[in-house]
């Protein structure tokens, strides 16, 4: 055992909460190990570690979906502002101008909704592979 310890020259520092440390310490005291480092080392190397990787293409799709969602929110806000303004108008020329703006924003909204739908479809197809 002494020879094995002499090869250990690398150190790992780990911060724990009081609760986490108390749990490890109580489990260590119930074990047959003499040193806490031996106890931790035994558990560290004896348990399988599950690692996951991130799919870069899905990350890019998610980023684009977030941007599209933000654009949809701002278009929705514009439509709400136009609707409020139309409800308070009393003059026909102002009404026509705001109605035109409303139609432009409505078209943008439906175009963006189609983009979001398309991206959502792409994401679901990749997840189902």
From TrEMBL:
InterPro entries with a match to the protein in the record: NikA-like
Protein's UniProt name: Plasmid mobilization relaxosome protein MobC
Organism field: Flavobacterium ginsenosidimutans
Gene designation: mobC
